[in-house]
Amino acid sequence: KKDYCGYVSFRYLDQTLSQTNDTCKYIRRRWTASNDCTDPPTKQEFNFDHILKVTHPDGPRVDIPDDLTVTDCHKPLLPDSLNGYPAVLCACDSVETYFKDDTIYSNPEVCFTIERNWFLRFLCLPGYDSTFVYIQKITLDVNLDPNDITWPVKNYTSYTCTPTLDPEKTGKPSLKKDYCGLITFSYIDQLLSSGICTTYIRTWTAVNACSQSQRPFFQQFIEVKNQDPPVITCPADTVVNADANTCGKAFTLPDPKLGNNCNSGVTITSNAPGVFPVGMTFEVFSVKDSCNNTS
Residue 16: which residues within 8 A CB-CB, separation 6 or more? Predict the structure, then answer.
């Protein structure tokens, strides 16, 4: 508090009092003030004990949230929704915590992995200011359960008069639960048979954006009818005897046979008279399906 012309000096000696772990220890710093104008054994000296608490003598100790895998695509990936924030043991005067995420897509069997870089800044008076970085890994892994898929009908028959293979008409897959848009469906058509009756094999594939190996598929058979005139086979030529009292014969020929089942709503008409006269009569059959295809 006053000027002693430089004849008073100060020195100190540190002694560790306790250290129960690697995060905190207590030091007794004994300060000694000496009057340099005096000599032993009557030298004037005064002592003062200063107790110091040293945090992180071997560096800061921090419990970082464990790495984890999240399977619910609806779950927010923020610390409050997961396993929290780093816990600092025996902190300094203040600790600042923040994080920065790096998203990594190197694993084709998961959606992605977040490397959460935790930055912890330790401020300890009078002059300690250091930032440490710790990494937590968070993996989003959404697996597709094939039982969650509702496939279209196995066999679909189209009776439309205008050919269509539109999935809005023939049916398309759907999901029984929400997969956050990670599941998409695609299909490939293969012509199985052509002609009057056309059949396609449609192979549906479910694609999981979070797994290259999870691709369940389903085959649908689509038969397209009523696209061409019916094909018929007429009954064989027939000879019948005229009735004894008439110059003809009341007779009905059987209907022609359809050559396939690829036309629906088929009606058959003919020019047959009520009574066939003596001689040769040509009966003409006409067929028409529900789409007005005629033969």
Answer: 25, 26, 27
Q: How high is the mean pLDDT of the chain?
A: 87
Determine contact, residues 166/140, Cβ cutoff 8 Å: no
Give the model's pLDDT for residue 203.
98
Distance CA 223, CA 171 (A): 13
DSSP state of 59: B
17 phi and psi angles, rounded to 5 deg: -90, -40
Residues of the chain with pLDDT under 70: 19-24, 54-60, 90-93, 195-196, 227
Residue 264 corresponds to which tokens in the numbers above? Answer: 């629906």
Angle in degrees, CA 240, 245, 246, rounded to 5: 60
Distances (CA, A) of 162 to 225, 259, 289: 10, 22, 14
Name residues whose C-beta falls within 8 Å of residue 70's C-beta, 6 or more positions apart in sequence. 77, 82, 138, 139, 140, 141
d(CA 294, CA 231): 9
Cα 277 from Cα 283, distance rounded (Å):
12
Q: What are phi and psi of 83, to 5 degrees?
A: -110, 30
Backbone φ and ψ for 156, nearest 5 degrees, come out as: -125, 130
